[in-house]
Design goal:
By secondary structure, the protein is an all-alpha fold. The chain has 2 domains: 14-104, lambda repressor-like DNA-binding domains (434 Repressor (Amino-terminal Domain)), CATH 1.10.260; 106-137, no CATH class. Helices cover 67% and strands 0% of the residues. The chain has helices at residues 14-29, 34-41, 45-53, 60-70, 83-95, 98-104, 106-117, 121-136. Helix 2 crosses helix 3 (45-53).
Length: 137
């Protein structure tokens, strides 16, 4: 059985960073403040900050509560993650925060909210196709 590399307390685990990023992204999509999420969870907003930064690990029961509050399946927090991608993400983060910056922009959040407000999946797909066409024009 392969050994799992331990992470020091100084460096957050890449999986915890990924989960925290997904928490922040969904919270922002919903337009929810850290304070509101914290209140719903019964913790301080500083604790939510630590979860989102990956500096504090989110327990399974707390993650379950977050999935209900944020309206996503619990698997959402682990989507698109592999051990290799987690390590790559940490390496990229130290050299390039562009993706994080894009996800934090108000314009991105407004675009995501508008996109997911389209209830008809076929219309959403057509909109996405149109957007891709415009982006390459």
């Amino acid at each position: 059985m392969p050994r799992v590399k331990k992470h020091s307390s100084e460096n957050p685990n890449p999986i915890d960073i990924h989960v925290g990023t997904r928490i922040r992204m969904q919270r922002n999509i919903l337009g929810m403040s850290q304070e509101k999420l914290a209140e719903s969870l019964g913790v301080t907003f500083q604790q939510v900050q630590k979860y989102e930064n990956g500096t504090n690990r989110v327990s399974a029961s707390r993650l379950h509560d977050m999935s209900k509050i944020l309206g996503v399946d619990i698997s959402y927090f682990f989507d698109k993650i592999t051990p290799a991608s987690a390590m790559l993400r940490v390496a990229e983060k130290t050299t390039n925060d562009e993706l994080g910056d894009i996800l934090e922009r108000r314009e991105t959040i407004h675009l995501l909210r508008a996109y997911y407000a389209i209830k008809d999946e076929a219309v959403r797909k057509k909109f996405l196709d149109m957007l891709k066409t415009l982006a390459t024009a």
